[in-house]
C-alpha cells in the first residue's frame, strides 16, 4: 500500500484547479459566443422566418426575408456587434494604460478599435444605400427592385466579418 506525500496532494489539487479553470474559460467563451454573436446573427432571420406561420404573410415570408437582407437591415447587427466590441476593447486599453504597460498589446487594441469603428461606418453607409434603393424602387412602383447583388453580398460579408472580429477582439480582451 502506497502512502501519499503532502506534495502529491498539492499537485493533484493544483491540477484539478487548472482543469476546472480551463473548463470555466471554455464554458465562458462558449456562452459569450452564443449570447453575443450567434443570437444577434440568427434572431432577426429566425423571427422573419416565423412569418411563414402567419396566414396573412405565409406566401410572402421568403420575399420579406430577402427584402430585409436586400435593404441592408442585417448591417444593424454588424453595427451593434462592433459597438459592443469597441467598448470592450477601449475598456481593456484603459486598464492597460493605467497599469503603465507599453507593450504591443496597446497597438493591437487600437487596431481592434479602429477596425470596429470602420465596420460601424461602412455598415451605416450600406444601410443608407439599401434604404435609398428601397425608397427609389417604391417611388417607381417597383416593389421587387432593390439593392444590387454586390450590396447584398457586401452586407452579408460585413456582418460575418464583424462577428469574427468581435470574437477575436473578445479573446484578446479576456487575455488582458
UniProtKB/TrEMBL annotation:
<feature type="transmembrane region" description="Helical">
    <location>
        <begin position="110"/>
        <end position="131"/>
    </location>
</feature>
<keyword id="KW-0812">Transmembrane</keyword>
<keyword id="KW-1133">Transmembrane helix</keyword>
<feature type="transmembrane region" description="Helical">
    <location>
        <begin position="29"/>
        <end position="53"/>
    </location>
</feature>
<feature type="transmembrane region" description="Helical">
    <location>
        <begin position="143"/>
        <end position="167"/>
    </location>
</feature>
<protein>
    <submittedName>
        <fullName>Uncharacterized protein</fullName>
    </submittedName>
</protein>
<keyword id="KW-0472">Membrane</keyword>
Amino acid at each position: 500500500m502506497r502512502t501519499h506525500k503532502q506534495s502529491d496532494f498539492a499537485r493533484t489539487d493544483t491540477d484539478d484547479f487548472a482543469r476546472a479553470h480551463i473548463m470555466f474559460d471554455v464554458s465562458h467563451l462558449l456562452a459569450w459566443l452564443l449570447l453575443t454573436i450567434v443570437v444577434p446573427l440568427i434572431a432577426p432571420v429566425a423571427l422573419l422566418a416565423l412569418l411563414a406561420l402567419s396566414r396573412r404573410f405565409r406566401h410572402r415570408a421568403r420575399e420579406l426575408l430577402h427584402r430585409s437582407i436586400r435593404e441592408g437591415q442585417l448591417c444593424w447587427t454588424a453595427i451593434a456587434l462592433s459597438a459592443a466590441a469597441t467598448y470592450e476593447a477601449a475598456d481593456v486599453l484603459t486598464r492597460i494604460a493605467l497599469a503603465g504597460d507599453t507593450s504591443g498589446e496597446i497597438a493591437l487594441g487600437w487596431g481592434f478599435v479602429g477596425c470596429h469603428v470602420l465596420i460601424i461606418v461602412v455598415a451605416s453607409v450600406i444601410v443608407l444605400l439599401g434604404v435609398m434603393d428601397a425608397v427609389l424602387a417604391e417611388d417607381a412602383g417597383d416593389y421587387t427592385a432593390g439593392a444590387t447583388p454586390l450590396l447584398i453580398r457586401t452586407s452579408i460579408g460585413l456582418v460575418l466579418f464583424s462577428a469574427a472580429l468581435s470574437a477575436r477582439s473578445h479573446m484578446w480582451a479576456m487575455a488582458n
